């Protein structure tokens, strides 16, 4: 890549870099996908960060969950959050929380959280922020008229409600209305969301036992940077060889000059730079001989014996898992968790930076685990990910 | 670099269709695009699957060949999955090269040959344990299942040691 090309900015780890095109741009630093080309000074993405990310696009929030929150606010509160929207329904008391009445659902959930970089993150579900959030100017007087619960307090309120066991009397259960959406919050879980420590522990246990132990470990940035890179030259012996990834012979006569950059791994196997980099981002091994650039997990080691299996019995409410053979050939059917598992492992593995590791926090914006009902919407950072 | 995806598949398809024909027992049924290919797999010679024919479906996305294609046996009105300890009745296959052991140097034909040989070496026609549970809850795409792989050289470890 030539140095004339503009730099890109990663909104996830705040790095300036040249992205990996695999084929969509990925941050070269944290492998995130929320990257932007730094093109003109008027619209510099770095300014966005400097002024503070005040508002995350609610369009990214699953409409089902948004509706859930909206209904929740109506069911739990003494009345609807937005009297105007409810029309003539009699005697609607003031909105219990989430103050804004600027249209839309009138419901709003805000979570403030310190980001790894030190700044504050502001995560919003619901309507656009009221004016009071947009700066020091033009504070509407009426906004202070109603007592409001917002920010962390609001989140706590929701969490405490949701973590309660489902009551036997369904009529009293505010979540009964959501049964059509695939089950209410049972055992502190609602879809991919967990609302109490017990449920979270359960998921962590499942992930530890089942999902990460054998997945490939990607090469670190440091390892990748130190790899031997050469531009093909006339008479180079490499010209007689093939790139094992694209299966094509190295050539000086390519339209794209990038295809003349050859990376040779320590095991002496050569690849086009564009062919090997996406792979190393998912697995730090040589595709040909599996030479390990970074230590890989040992898996299905012959002779491990059945003992290994007995150490990980299914926990109490783990969804059914089955043995294929008497040994350790099992599958796990935690499919609704698979993407959470995959993303978190993918993110963690890409993480030679603390920022990307902490992205698995549930309230971090712009992570794929944000959208439980569309868990497959972008699995780009999962090796073996599939977009339906 | 999305071009690797289409270039690789074009190259593989050209080899399958013209240059080097697939090994005996493997036949291309459908490859109209770079999303879904279907092969017919037959195990010839002395095996438990003598006389049976199976459909093997590949689904690709632009992460190929950096991640494995989604591979499963075709299960429809006319075709059934083989009865095999690593093959579920919905067609999903538990094979490490389709998951953690995938390498971009592998190819569609390499997968076909591996699956064919997996069938050929089968000693006992039986369903995977927990087949019903899995089939009931399995995702459409087998790649969303995280299989834990057995040692391939020893499908019945209880016989070992």
Automatic annotation (TrEMBL), chain A:
The organism's place on the tree of life at top rank: Eukaryota
Protein name stated in the entry: Uncharacterized protein
TrEMBL record, chain B:
The protein, known as: UBC-like protein
